[in-house]
Write a structure and sequence with these properties.
Blueprint: E1 8-10, H1 14-19, H2 21-27, H3 33-44, E2 49-55, E3 58-70, E4 74-84, H4 93-107, E5 112-115, H5 122-130
Parallel strand pairs: 4-5
Antiparallel strand pairs: 1-2, 2-3, 3-4
């Protein structure tokens, strides 16, 4: 069995950020294209980085992450966003991104990697658990009008 290594790119230019929009829209349907780059740029000022994998078929997988510090977890790489094109799931793009993120966390001296995932994302949960992530908390939230 051969393992394919996919090149991971950082979305640095407005064009690279914008090309990730359609895929991120699946994960974040409230986003609008007109303000997307501006929102990403604002998050970048808070430490957010967007990475992606593309091939001849286009953008296949996207992740957004940042480094945070917590009393509970220490220095952490927190994954804000992670999505693989539905028709490309099972090929290895998501696995490659997560393994890259784990390596990035270790190289930056992190104590852990964390992410939140929607309760209905069973395929993603299987992937995360198979890669060694553990379910160790319950995330609660409240939206304000």
């Amino acid at each position: 069995m051969t393992t394919t290594t996919y090149e991971i790119q950082r979305a640095l230019s407005d064009e690279q950020i914008l090309v990730c929009f359609d895929l991120l829209l699946i994960l974040r349907p409230h986003l609008d294209k007109e303000s997307f780059v501006q929102k990403v740029r604002k998050q970048e000022k808070e430490g957010y980085t967007m990475i992606y994998i593309s091939d001849a078929e286009g953008i296949r997988s996207v992740a957004g992450y940042r480094f945070t510090n917590h009393l509970a977890w220490g220095k952490t790489l927190y994954v804000d966003d992670l999505i693989t094109q539905p028709e490309a799931r099972g090929i290895g793009f998501g696995t490659h991104l997560i393994k890259w993120l784990m390596g990035e966390a270790k190289s930056q001296g992190c104590d852990s990697i964390h992410l939140d995932t929607g309760i209905d994302r069973d395929e993603a949960h299987r992937l995360y658990l198979n890669l060694g992530l553990k379910i160790d908390c319950l995330h609660l939230s409240m939206k304000f009008d």
